[in-house]
Amino acid sequence: MKRLTSKLVIEYHEYMSRKFHFEIIEKNDSEWMPFVANALELLGVMDKDKFMQSFALTIVEPFTDSKFVYIPWRPGLDSKGIARLATLRKQVMILAHEVEHTIQGEEIDWGPRYFVSKSFRANQEALAMHAELELGFYLTGKPLNTTALANRLKYYRVRSRDIRVTKKHLDLYNKIVARGAVGSEAGKAAIKWLKKRVK
Question: Going by fewer Cβ within 10 Å, which terminus of the chain is more open, N or C?
Fold first, then answer.
């Protein structure tokens, strides 16, 4: 099991944002995040309180290609200001997930599809979860619980069948990860960086 420190996780946030050219903003520092939370709830995408407290958000601006990742945490610390190992691991994995969204946003014109198509939304989330599976296995030496990951989509207001398909998808990918494969760009960059710094 790899040991992480608060300082290392802060540096990891800085490295990933530089490498993939996005800005990290803490949600509590953003005046307009509560408006986004309300809009997502009205669109039927996610509960506003759950969004503010537990979920990160990636925005890729279509005309400027500026990328922003809004996070509900302070890098290197939990909500009580403590650097717990489980919290640090989660931050490393979720940031890699969000990096995958910045890549998706560049390669695919999300437009309104993410908001109006439940199956598209579930698919994009499942693909971003590849990075979580990769980092989870690298950090702990054990496969992540794919049921818990797939069930997270309940908060994205997708259909039950989308969650079932996502679970099967993640189960298959988890088997590949357990053999040492790393397919996501975020996972490759994160693991390469961590290998030089984490024992």
Answer: C
Give the C-alpha separation, 63 to 60, whole Å: 9
Residue 158 lies in a domain: yes
**Residue 69 and residue 94: Cα distance in Å, rounded?**
11
Edge-to-edge strands, sheet with 57-60: 23-26, 67-71, 57-60
CA distances from 10 to 32, 69, 70, 98, 193 (A): 24, 15, 15, 16, 13
Q: Specify the number of domains making up the chain.
A: 1
Q: Determine, yes or no, domain membership for 99.
A: yes
Structural domain including 77 reads 6-195
Tens digit of each residue's pLDDT (9 = 90 or more) over 113-157: 888 899 999 999 999 999 999 999 999 999 999 999 999 999 888
In a domain, 1, yes or no: no
